[in-house]
Amino acid sequence: MFRIFCAVALLLGLLISPVLAAFEDESSAYQTVLTVAPLPPLVVPTVIELDLSRMSISEANFMVYEIETGEWVTPQYRDRSDVRATTPIITQLGVNRQVGTLADQRPETTYTFTASSDNVATTILRFVYPRPITSSALILDLSQNVTLPEMVEILYGDELDPQTALARTRVGSANIMFPEVISAQWQVTFVHNQPLRLSELTFKDVRADVAITRSLRFLAQPLQSYKVYANPDRPSTIDGRESGNVWDSSGVTVKGKIASNLPNAYYLPSDKDGDGIENQADNCPDITNLDQVDIDGSNIGDACEDFDRDGIYNNLDNCINLPNPNQPDEDADGIGDACDDEESRLTEQYAWIPWVALGVAVATIGSMFFLVYRRPLAVADSTTDLPTGGV
Q1: For residue 140, is it left (φ>0), alpha (ψ between -120 and 50) or beta?
Q2: What is the three-class DSSP state of 189?
Q3: Of 51, 82, 240, 333, which has the most beta carbons under 10 Å away?
Q4: 3-state secondary structure of 376
């Protein structure tokens, strides 16, 4: 019985080991693993949304692991920043009328300030915010086919003792800029010779609260549980199952919760250049430089700098201090001609050698011509010396 148990355990080990090894290799790029809290019983495939707003995210790359099936699911991530704008009370002075449509954040609503019979009008608007804002721009959202006002003046502070943020000046853009000012009360004067129809009139608050919403959605299957792998330090090689259009809110969506946020036990720090130094500690992560030399103290390894700015990294440049983008190296000694003070070829070390070689060549060719010229004469002489016969 014990032998049978051992055999079964060994067989299971042989079957599971390759799967586990593949999983470890696939998930090794991710630094963090999130455990999804148990989901409510699902009857059909259901979109699960996880709120990641409080999570520190270094890379918007996630993969979801379906534990029971051992399959990877490709999720969809959304990062949205919403400015929490402070809404002012806007009053048109002179007629003492509130103009709420200019601050309702609805572009379809408009308000028209008419021009007088002589086509010149002055409109004064008073803005009162519930708290001081910091602004350096007034933004006009005009209705279609409406021209800009001719002149604008911007005051700030107490109505009885206002200060000038922008003296009366001609309007050249829908974004009216002025030096940065902090105030809860503002007054804007427009001079226009045509009806002025605005949909929004906003003082841009440079210190406005920004709400960042980060969320992750994926399609969950009934009777399955999930983990989310996050913060990879290199591109993921996982080929996951597609999630479909999970941002279509017309379907069923369940708000999931994160039960734990822990370091990934299978994470292996990236060493892109394979020099044995992890990317995070490598001063040259893309180029092998085991010595990590950084002679100028720039925190960038000398191997991946370009000292002479000729477009060639030092590790490939045959002359790192003098620009030579074409990399000429006449004597092929690995040192560019631009910085090679002593050429290694004999003909460059001793200038007379080429002339001696030329003289030898000329003498050799002359000797050959002389021998060819002498050969017919020798043949003629030998013919003359032959004995003659008589009768």
Answers
A1: beta
A2: strand
A3: 240
A4: helix
Q: Identify the H or E element spanning 12.
A: helix 2-27
In the beta sheet, which residues pair with residue 170? 151
Tokens of 47: 């979109």
Chosen CATH of 89-207 out of 2.60.120.260, 1.10.3720.10, 3.60.15.10, 3.40.50.720: 2.60.120.260
**pTM score, two decimals?**
0.50
Q: How far is CA 322 from CA 114, 289, 314, 325, 348, in A?
A: 70, 22, 11, 9, 21
Question: Considering Cα of 172, then 175, then 180, then 184, what sign does the dihedral take?
Answer: positive
Token digits for 303?
């191997």
Give per-10-residue mean pLDDT for the chain (391 aa): 49 42 77 94 93 83 94 90 78 91 85 80 94 93 86 94 94 92 95 90 83 88 95 84 80 88 91 82 87 89 88 89 90 86 59 71 77 62 53 39
> Which residue matches tokens 């699911």?
73
